[in-house]
């Protein structure tokens, strides 16, 4: 059994999952992703400008997830593929997000490597295919 995300909760997250929709705090100017009720940087801003994130960034940190370390919703992928790389990606606009890396270069993943977001199938739950973004080297 995976970590359950209800269909209504999943649908509320569609803008950030499908379109990388972020929000720029009108108080401090920092970009929040995923969107928050209060700015996670200044913790006083509650007014935001919606922005479209570019999907471009660099690898800030990375690791490889294998069998027993996979989150429940990715256990099927871990069984099929074995291990898979995951990175903390620092987007051009500032936020850092965790995402799976696809098509890693043969020479390996490096900190500072340029990456871009791509829309992919993530997993299936309750008969609904869940989509979102992964990153690939540029």
Describe the protein's architecture and organization:
The longest helix has 7 residues. The chain contains three helices and eight strands. It has a domain of 83 residues: OB fold (Dihydrolipoamide Acetyltransferase, E2P) (Beta Barrel). The strands form two sheets. It has a five-stranded antiparallel beta sheet with strand order 6-5-4-7-8. Strands 2-1-3 form a three-stranded antiparallel beta sheet. It is mainly β.
Helical content stands at 10-25%
Form type:
globular
Q: Which whole number gives the mean pLDDT?
A: 84
Number of strands: 8
Give me the number of helical elements: 3
Q: Major sheet: order of its strands? A: 6-5-4-7-8
Topology-level CATH name of one domain: OB fold (Dihydrolipoamide Acetyltransferase, E2P)
**Class from secondary-structure proportions:** mainly beta
> Order of helices and strands, N to C?
HHEEEEHEEEE
Largest sheet: 5 strands, antiparallel
Q: What would you report as the Rg, rounded to the nearest angstrom?
A: 16 Å
In the CATH hierarchy, what is the architecture of one domain at level 2? Beta Barrel
Q: Which parts are unreliable, with pLDDT below 50 for 5 consecutive residues or more? A: none
Instruction: Quote the distance from N terminus to C terminus.
Output: 35 Å
CATH class of one domain: Mainly Beta
Beta percentage is 35-45%
InterPro entries: ChsH2_C, ChsH2_Znr, NA-bd_OB-fold, Thioester_dehydratase-like
Organism: Desulfocucumis palustris
Keywords: Acyltransferase, Transferase
GO molecular function, one term: acyltransferase activity
């Amino acid at each position: 059994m995976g970590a359950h995300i209800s269909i209504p909760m999943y649908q509320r997250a569609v803008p950030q999952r499908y379109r990388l929709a972020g929000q720029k705090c009108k108080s401090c100017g920092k970009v929040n992703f995923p969107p928050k009720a209060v700015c996670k940087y200044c913790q006083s801003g509650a007014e935001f400008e919606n922005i479209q994130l570019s999907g471009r960034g660099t690898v800030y940190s990375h690791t490889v997830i294998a069998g027993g370390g996979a989150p429940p919703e990715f256990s099927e992928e871990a069984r099929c593929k074995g291990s898979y790389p995951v990175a903390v990606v620092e987007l051009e606009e500032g936020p850092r997000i965790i995402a799976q890396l696809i098509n890693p270069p043969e020479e390996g993943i490096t900190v500072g490597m340029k990456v871009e977001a791509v829309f992919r199938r993530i997993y299936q739950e309750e008969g609904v295919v869940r989509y979102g973004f992964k990153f690939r080297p540029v």
